[in-house]
Amino acid sequence: MRLSRAEYKEIAKWTEHLRPTRQCMKMLKERFPNHSQSTLLSIFSLEYQKRTKRTISRHHAPDVIESHYQRYLSEAKAHPTAPVLLELANEVDLSPALMARIILDRFLQDLEGGMSSKTVLNSMLKEPSLIPDQTLANNVYQCTINDCCYGPLVDCIKHAIGQEHEVLLCDKLKERNLSFLDENQLRAMGYDKTPDIILEVPIAVEGHTVHWIESKASFGDDHSHRTYLNEQFWSYWNRFGPGLVIYWYGFIGELDCQRDRGILLKDCFPTDIVTLCHAAQKD
After folding, report:
1. How far is Cα 142 from Cα 140, in angstroms, rounded to an integer?
2. What's the CA dihedral at 20, 22, 27, 31 to 10 degrees?
3. Among 166, 165, 162, 138, which Cα is nearest to 81's?
4. Fewest CB within a 10 Å sphere: which of 85, 139, 142, 223?
5. DSSP 63-117
6. Averaged pLDDT for residues 230-235
């Protein structure tokens, strides 16, 4: 889905006061029914991460951590079955999964008599049943499953979705009988920084030559696309020539302005592919 920058800003503006919960995602879908759930979730996630980066430092101040922790202990004691951490996270506008990490880290400091082990902390966040305090384990679990932007569950889902779209891309290429090398094959050949696909024989899409394809299971906004250009796409262009980026959940239309320089944007697998064989037949 290709959105104008104005359309994107309208959605982004509406997300400013939403929390990263499933209920908020339902509200977002009701407000923008013509956009897919996946596109809206991707846009919200991008905007919420920007908001979190601006505010996270204040939640890591020692006095604030201690305040959050003591409040959790007090309320969890008074209401042991209530989703205390989830409610506290929503109240102070912090990702539930990040709140769970802060409180669990503080709990482990008491338990271990000093700095907690990052390995232990991460393993407990992934598997809350390992947490020796049952009430805290329940609260961490509630935060994890109710957060749609951060946490081990979201990381796992994002990784799976990314893999799914890479497989989809490979399947589409095979359907067209296009010969290619995937990321794993390229790394085995010694390449360190590679796109998802290198075409062994270039193709043309909408009159533009394509040597490589990058799959992004996300929405392409100004910030993420600029970052990808600087850290990935231009280096691919320098090494392999012009290429195609597929933002499966859409992008801001105005960003597709580098076609003449060799980077084409699409929101789906292209249907109007011209191969070398077709071009030769036409000639």
Report:
1. 5
2. 80
3. 138
4. 223
5. HHHHHHHHHHHHHHHH-TTS-HHHHHHHHTT--HHHHHHHHHHHHHHHHHTSSPP
6. 96
